[in-house]
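Lab channel / #folding
Pinned by the channel admin:
"Please post every new chain as: sequence first, then the structure tokens as a reply. Keep commentary short and put observations after the output so the thread stays searchable."

First post following the new format, from NK:
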Amino acid sequence: MFPTSSAPALSPAGAPDIFPSSRRDCAVRYAQVRAASVQCAAGLSAEDQCIQSMPDASPFKWHLAHASWFFEAVILRTFAPDYQALDERYHYLFNSYYESLGPRHPRPQRGLLSRPSLDEVHAYRAHVDAALLRWIEDAPDDVWRRAAPLLALGLNHEQQHQELMVTDMLHALSCNPLLPAWQVAQAPAVRLAAAPRMGWVDVPGGVVSVGYGGEGFAFDNETPRHPVLLAPFRLADRLVNCGEYAAFMAAGGYRRPEFWLSEGWSRVQAEAWVAPAYWIAPDDPRARADDGWQVFGLHGLRPLDPCAPVMHLSFYEAAAYAEWAGARLPTETEWEAAHGRPGLTQMQGLAWQWTRSSYDPYPGFRPLSGAVGEYNGKFMIGQMVLRGSSLATPPGHARPSYRNFFPPAARWQFSGLRLAQDAA
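Reply from TO:
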């Protein structure tokens, strides 16, 4: 499996840069992405792939089926008049939230779908793949021109579900008292002697352009590109690490309400938070022989690495840490404006980074027409934006303008934080 968010839609730009122009190359790209989803299951049993550990997560098996449902519902049922569904009931079982496409099985009950079996889900994927590849080859040119952008969207959608397969499965394994490893590590975790001292990168103020402005693929929530006036600010040159976060905990961070937003403090008390998700205290009965904190991850339970970026934080925890540290979280505009500046590290590929920005439409945003218009716009309320990407994000899927979003209490994602300050 490869360790590979947010709801996508299609930019007016059309097909993505990674999406080839020729039909033959499109078929190759389709096969690659689809195979990667199946490869994610390496190391998992059939039982693993059927469980649902909480309403916000979905069974691995359901993700595999839903990604196929998208190609079937959005492309084959619309643009392939001769297409015959393998099982019409799947249109109900594997719809996620598309009101315009009909009713659906309740999300919190996806773990009850012991039928269809995992083998039947794989047969469904094979059925859709065969039909989709025939359609790529045979679709009339005018149909191809209209539908190819939706194929690009479908592949990016599947990559998002590849990431959710990892995050949702990790949460499910964390609920097992055995704390089983998903991937067998090749070597024990390396614990660095000391963390590099955090530095700061100054970013001048002024008018900056924000949002996707290229000619390739972007989700519609990244558009339109627009100007924003920024005051000068400073951005930390790396992510906050576990050792620094442990210092916040030792200073009573989870016991001192002055650092917390009101809703965050209520959540700390209601759910008895004392550490990030997946941190195991030394006195926890699940802990193994060790005299310190341990962290559960894809390789099982490991000693806490103080130099590793802290992850599995809610927005509330990230904001509380920033307050304790005498800093703040960056806005999403600041994060994007600073991306690529010399001195900044760990911007991509380790942990999603919470921002102080609510998930709202950009000025001039308009959702797409048709069913895919439900992808983003209707979720623009009550959620916070994360930027960057994580160790679970498929290669090539992220970009500086990418807007991930989750509710502020979400902790099961690979979510961390980077500090910001107003310029002196």
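NK: Residues 141-174 form the longest helix (34 residues).
TO: also worth noting, The two ends are 46 Å apart (CA to CA).
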